[in-house]
Every structure is written in C-alpha cells, then in structure tokens.
C-alpha cells in the first residue's frame, strides 16, 4: 500500500507543482517536506484539531478532498484501512462538488464505495445527455432506441471517456443533482436550455422504457445448454441490434441494471437442475467475486463460444463441472480463459 509520502509525491508531480511552494505555504523547511515525501518522517496527524490549518493546506495544494488526505494519514499513522479508490476519480470529484444541499451522509456513502449506485445512475444520465447533444443533425440522422442504448452502454464502460471528455464537458456546465435512495433515482437541475431540450429528446426516444439510465430491464443475448455454447462479444452483447429485453429479477441490485445481461436455457440438457426457458442473469467483469460452486459463463482461447458450468478452483486451474452427466468436466488454467462471469440470478 502506498505511503502518504508516495501518495503526495505523485500528486505534486502530476500537478506540476514544487515541494518548495508547499513548504512555504506550511511555513516549514523544504528539507522537512522532502523527508515526509520520501518516507523518512511520518506526516503530521492531520486529524487533530490543532492541525486543521495544515490539513486545509495539504488538501488544497494536492487538489484533493480533505477526506482523501485524512484517509492516507490515518492509514499511515494508525493503520486505519483505506477506503476503496473511486472507479472514476475526476467524475466523483465533480459530482460531490455539485451535490445539492451538500448531503454529507450521501457524500460519505459515495466515498466508501468504488462506485456508488448514485454515481452510476448520475453518470448514465450524463452520458445520455452528452450523446444526444453530439448527434449530428446535419446528416439528417436520428438515434434509434437500440442504437442509443448500445452507444450509452459503451460510453459508460469507457473509463477514459468518462474521466476525460464527459467530466470535462459537464465541468463547464452549471448543474446540481440529488439522490432519492428510496426510489433509487437521481434528479438533475440544469440551467442550460440546450440540455433541457436534449432531455426531452431522450424521453421521446425512450418513451416506452422511461429513463433508460435507471431501467429495470436487461438484454437477452443468446441461448445456452450443457453442450452448446453461444457466440457473443466480450462485453456480453451480440453484433447487431434488436435483442429482447426482460425484467431484472427481484433481489438484484437495481444499480447493476446497465451492466447485467441474460441468456436463456435451451433444450433439456440441464433439465435436472434448470428447466428449458429459464433465464440466467450474468454480471460482467465479476471474476474476483466467483467462489467454488458458483454457476458461471466462460469462454476459453480456443472455443469461440461461451458455455455455462459450475466452477471449482484448484490452484491455478479451474474445474468447470457440467451439470449433466452426459458431458465431461473441463479443466483449464486461469490463463486459458478470456471470459469468466458469474450467474447472479436464475428465473425459472
């Protein structure tokens, strides 16, 4: 884990600032700052009230929230576990700055997670608005419902786009937002008439599935059986458009809606466990969550199709067990797999 000195040194280098300027602001010697940044001295305990002024200077100089600085110092001095880093650092900073009413409780919840549901939904709505504003009307094009959904899905998953273009775009716009935890919904308030018109266009496109960003439906991308796989992209979505949408099953976090996909069971090869027509809901990029006995969708480097099996871990190998005795178990190395995703729900 990075020391406070390494954390601060990286920020100073990234911002193009100098240790001497920081020393002048704090009223200490450059040598003292150098010793902190190289780990030869511990940082001051910035959580104490007498060091409040120093905390403000450190946070301002490093261009981060005071809580971020405190987390690093507490970890260094008192071994307090660090909170998970945000998936979208710059976007989180913007959203917290524009949070209506400065809701401290919500802000703390957001900082405690890699990606809070409120952040996820806010980003989804911002992606919709940005893409609608960027549609080239001069070419006489119009977003179709399926095309718009797919573009939004791709944009939400592109970290470079979210942290760069999307954050930069909304930094220059005046807005505030709120989060309704009971309804799992976000509300934006924009002053720009152009953005308000874009929102009306989005509602028109998605009029039969209101508020795509917060929808409770997921796409069915193929059929699966014990012996037959299905072809789809690594993101879970097939080439082309027009795939079926089904309701998100009860008990699944609604915030996962934009990510989860579904496959249907076809044939009787799994009939002892899962009936034909049952729906398997799959969470992408869930490798780290998978445990022995989980039902998974997997694809290796040889096959061009994905299959469903139960998994067991054995060192660097995975035993992928068929639920039908007519099909053999498969043993693969982790390095052989290009896809391993967990089935999080089954609807019979």
Number of helices: 11
Task: Report the strand count.
Answer: 11
Distance between the terminal alpha carbons, to the nearest Å?
45 Å
Q: Name the strands of the widest sheet in spatial order.
A: 4-3-5-6-11-7-8-9-10
What is the alpha-carbon Rg in Å? Answer: 24 Å
Helix content: 25-40%
Helix/strand order: HHHHHHHHHHEEHEEEEEEEEE
Structural class of the helices, strands and pairings? alpha+beta
Plain-language structure description:
- The chain is of the alpha+beta class and 348 residues long.
- The chain has eleven helices and eleven strands.
- A nine-stranded mixed β-sheet has the order 4-3-5-6-11-7-8-9-10, with no helix packed on it. A two-stranded antiparallel ribbon has the order 1-2.
- A hairpin with a 2-residue loop joins strand 8 (307-314) and strand 9 (317-321).
- Helix 2 (19-26) crosses helix 3 (30-37) and helix 6 runs parallel beside helix 10 (159-171).
- The longest helix is centred in the middle third of the chain and has 18 residues, at 117-134.
- It is globular, with a radius of gyration of 24 Å.
- The two termini are 45 Å apart.
Write the layout of secondary structure elements.
Elements: H1 4-15, H2 19-26, H3 30-37, H4 52-62, H5 66-78, H6 89-97, H7 104-111, H8 117-134, H9 145-156, H10 159-171, E1 175-180, E2 185-190, H11 193-205, E3 217-224, E4 245-247, E5 261-265, E6 279-283, E7 295-300, E8 307-314, E9 317-321, E10 330-333, E11 337-347
Parallel strand pairs: 3-5
Antiparallel strand pairs: 1-2, 3-4, 5-6, 6-11, 7-8, 7-11, 8-9, 9-10
Helix pairs in contact: 2-3, 4-5, 6-10, 8-9, 8-10, 8-11
